[in-house]
Specification:
nine-stranded mixed beta sheet, Rossmann fold, alpha+beta, disordered C terminus, six-stranded mixed beta sheet, Heat Shock Protein 90, Ribosomal Protein S5, domain 2, single chain
C-alpha cells in the first residue's frame, strides 16, 4: 500500500458513512444552498422558513386549510397550518427520516413543491431547537429535537380540542448561521408571493394579514405604478398556468416566475419558454419581425405554472430544469405548453383590445428607436472597454466568479466599488483574492438621473463598470453575486453612495430587485484599552464599549476607509462582514424614489434634512 504525501495511509478505516443528520450539518449547502447571515433574500435561514411553509401550502393546494399562522421573532420561527395534520404514527419519521413523506404518493400531492422528503429534515438538523406537533381528529402527537436528535416526545394519541393541522417551531443553529437576523422586507416579500399564488388563502404573519383575490394581477399591481404603465395589466389564466404582464418606462426586463408556488428566482425552462413565446406571438400579431430585445424591453411580467413532479436544478428550487409537464414520456413539453397558451390567449386578447395592442406597438417601436440611436456610440464604447479590460487599472479582479458553475464558492464572489485610491488600497491589500474584487472610482461619478442609457456608453467610468460586471445584456452573465458600494462615512461618501445607487436603479434596476446591491458597513469607532479593542458600528455600540472597557479608553472616529489599516480592514470584510442590502419596498416605484432624492425638488429635501438632522459630538468629549 502506497502512502499519501503526508504519510497518512488510506485504508478501510478512512471510509465512513454519515447518518442523515451528520451529512446535512457537514454539507448544509447541498440542502439549503448558501448559509449567509440573512442579509440576502436567498440565505439559508429563509430557505428553512420556506421548507416548512411549502408543506403547509401543499396542504392548502390539496383543498385542506384556508389559513396559515406564522410568528417570527429574532431567532424563533413558528408555523401553524390547518390542513389534515401529519398522520400521528408518522410524526417523528416525517421530520427525522430522510426520504420519508407523503409527497411520493402522487395521488395525495399531484403538483406539490416538496418532493424528495429532505426539506423538513434539513430544517430539523440545522436547528438548535425543533418541535413538531400534529393535530388530527381530536388527537395530538408532538416531538422535540436538538440538531436532529430526538430529545422528548408525547405519549401517542393525547386528546385535544385543537383544529386539525400541523404546528412546527424551530430556532436556526447559530453555530451554522452565524450572527443571523431576519430582514422584515424579505419575509414580507416571501409571504406576499405565497398569497398571490394561492388566491383565497389567508396568511397571518406577526399580526399582519396577507391575502390576494386576483393572484398575479395583484402582484404586478404592487410591483409597478399602474398610472405609469403603458397599458393596463394583462391577466391570463388557464389550467396549470397563470400570466400577468405590462410594459413600463424602465430599462431592462423584470420577471417574477413560479413553479408549483415556488419562486424560481433564477428562472428556468418555463421563463425561457415565456420569453420566446411572447416574441413569436407579437411578431405574428403585428406581422413585423421585431427584434426580441425591443419586444421585451421595459416589460414587467409574472409567470406561474404547475408541473407534476418538477425537476429543479438544486435542492433550493430556484431554477426549473423540467422539460415536460409530467414524468410521462408522452407528456407535452413545458416549451410547447406555454407557447400554445400564449399564442392562443395573448393573440385573442390583443384582437379584442385594440387600444392595448396599439400601446404595445408604440412601446416596441420606441425601444427600437432608442436601441438604434445608441448603436454607434455603443460599438465605440465596447471597443474601448475591450482594450481597457486588458490592463484595466480600475478593476482588481478576483479568481472565482458567479458564472463559474463548477465552483462551490461562486455565490461568495463580490465586487467592492470604492472611492479613490486610498480606500481601494486598504481593501485590495486585505481582501480574499479568490472571491473579492475591487473597482476604484476616481471621484464623484456623474449624476445620471433623468439621462438616457446612452450615457452609460459615453461615460468611460460607467462603461468600464458595466463591462466589469458583465450586465450589458442582462443578469445572466453577472460576474459577481454581490456588488458592494464601499464609501467613506462622511458627506462626500454618502453623496457618492447616492450617485452609484442612482446609476444602478436608473439603468440596471433588475440588479437591485434581485438582491445583488449592498452597502458596506465599516466601524465608525474604535474603542480600546491596553487589554481589549472593540470596533463599533453605531453610537449605541460605542457607548456600550466605553462602559465595558472602563474609564477613559482610547476612542478613534473612523471617517474614511483609507484611515483604517489593511490589517484592521481585513477583519471587516471577512467572515464577520456587515452588509446592508439595498431593498426596494413593495409600494415604492423607482421613478418616484429617484425623483425625490436626485431630482429638482430641493425645498422638499432641504425640509427633510432639517427635520432629521443629527448633530454628532466629537468622540473626545465622550472620553473626557
Amino acid at each position: 500500500m502506497s502512502e499519501t504525501p503526508n504519510n497518512v495511509q488510506y485504508t478501510e478505516d478512512n471510509i465512513r458513512s454519515l447518518d442523515w443528520k451528520e451529512h446535512i450539518r457537514l454539507r448544509p449547502g447541498m440542502y439549503i444552498g448558501k448559509l449567509g447571515d440573512g442579509s440576502s433574500a436567498d440565505d439559508g435561514i429563509y430557505v428553512l422558513v420556506k421548507e416548512i411553509m411549502d408543506n403547509s401550502i401543499d396542504e392548502h393546494m390539496m383543498g385542506h386549510g384556508k389559513a396559515i399562522d406564522i410568528k417570527i421573532s429574532d431567532h424563533r420561527v413558528e408555523v401553524r397550518d390547518y390542513g389534515r395534520g401529519i398522520p400521528l404514527g408518522k410524526v417523528i419519521d416525517c421530520v427525522s427520516k430522510i426520504n420519508t413523506g407523503g409527497k411520493y404518493d402522487s395521488g395525495a400531492f399531484q403538483k406539490s413543491v416538496g418532493l424528495n422528503g429532505v426539506g423538513t429534515k434539513a430544517t430539523n438538523a440545522l436547528s438548535n431547537y425543533f418541535k413538531v406537533q400534529s393535530f388530527r381528529d381530536g388527537k395530538t402527537k408532538w416531538a422535540e429535537f436538538k440538531q436532529g436528535e430526538l430529545t422528548a416526545e408525547s405519549v401517542d394519541g393525547e386528546s385535544t380540542n385543537a383544529k386539525n393541522g400541523t404546528h412546527i417551531a424551530f430556532e436556526p443553529d447559530n453555530t451554522i448561521f452565524k450572527n443571523y437576523h431576519f430582514i422584515p422586507q424579505y419575509l414580507d416579500n416571501l409571504f406576499w408571493n405565497y398569497a398571490y399564488l394561492n388566491a383565497g388563502l389567508s396568511i397571518n404573519f406577526n399580526g399582519q394579514k396577507y391575502f390576494s383575490q386576483k393572484g398575479l394581477h395583484d402582484l404586478l399591481s404592487k410591483k409597478t405604478n399602474e398610472e405609469e404603465n403603458r397599458y393596463p395589466i394583462i391577466h391570463l389564466r388557464g389550467n396549470d398556468i397563470e400570466i400577468a404582464m405590462t410594459h413600463g418606462n424602465q430599462y431592462g426586463e423584470e420577471y417574477y416566475s413560479f413553479v408549483n408556488g415556488q419562486n424560481t428566482t433564477q428562472g428556468g425552462t418555463h421563463l425561457q419558454a415565456f420569453r420566446e413565446a411572447l416574441v413569436r406571438t407579437v411578431r405574428d400579431f403585428y406581422k413585423k419581425d421585431y427584434a426580441p430585445e425591443d419586444v421585451r424591453s421595459s416589460i414587467v411580467a409574472a409567470v406561474a405554472i404547475r408541473v407534476q413532479e418538477p425537476v429543479f436544478e438544486s435542492q433550493t428550487k430556484t431554477k426549473l430544469g423540467s422539460n415536460t409537464m409530467s414524468p410521462d414520456s408522452s407528456s407535452q413539453t413545458v416549451r410547447s405548453f406555454i407557447g400554445d397558451f400564449i399564442k392562443t390567449e395573448l393573440d385573442n386578447f390583443l384582437h379584442k383590445n385594440p387600444v392595448v395592442a396599439e400601446a404595445i406597438k408604440k412601446r416596441i417601436e420606441q425601444s427600437e428607436r432608442e436601441r438604434k440611436d445608441i448603436a454607434g456610440i455603443k460599438k465605440l464604447a465596447n471597443d474601448r472597454a475591450k482594450k481597457a479590460n486588458l490592463h484595466n487599472k480600475k478593476l482588481r479582479d478576483c479568481r472565482i466568479h458567479r458564472t463559474d458553475e463548477k465552483s462551490d464558492d461562486r455565490y461568495s464572489s463580490m465586487l467592492f466599488i470604492t472611492e479613490g485610491d486610498s480606500a481601494s488600497g486598504s481593501i485590495t491589500k486585505s481582501r480574499n483574492v479568490q472571491t473579492q474584487a475591487v473597482f476604484s472610482l476616481r471621484g464623484k461619478p456623474l449624476n445620471c438621473f433623468g439621462l438616457t442609457k446612452k450615457i452609460v456608453y459615453e461615460n468611460e467610468e460607467f462603461n468600464l463598470l458595466q463591462h466589469a460586471l458583465n450586465i450589458e445584456d442582462g443578469l445572466d452573465g453577472l460576474r459577481y453575486e454581490k456588488i458592494i458600494i464601499s464609501t467613506d462615512a462622511d458627506v462626500d461618501g454618502m453623496h457618492i453612495r447616492l450617485l452609484m445607487m442612482t446609476f444602478f436603479l436608473q439603468f440596471f434596476p433588475d440588479l437591485v430587485r434581485n438582491g445583488h446591491l449592498y452597502i458596506l458597513e465599516t466601524p465608525l469607532f474604535r474603542v480600546r484599552n491596553k487589554k481589549e479593542t472593540r470596533y463599533c458600528y453605531s453610537d449605541e455600540e460605542r457607548q456600550k464599549a466605553i462602559k465595558d472597557l472602563g474609564p477613559k479608553p482610547e476612542i478613534t472616529r473612523f471617517k474614511g476607509l483609507g484611515e483604517i489599516s489593511p490589517e484592521e480592514f481585513g477583519k471587516f470584510i471577512g467572515d464577520n462582514i456587515r452588509l446592508e442590502p439595498v431593498i426596494l419596498e413593495k409600494d415604492t416605484t423607482i421613478p418616484k424614489i429617484l425623483n425625490y432624492y436626485m431630482g429638482k425638488n430641493t425645498p422638499d429635501r432641504q425640509k427633510f434634512i432639517i427635520e432629521n438632522l443629527i448633530i454628532e459630538k466629537d468622540p473626545a468629549e465622550f472620553a473626557a
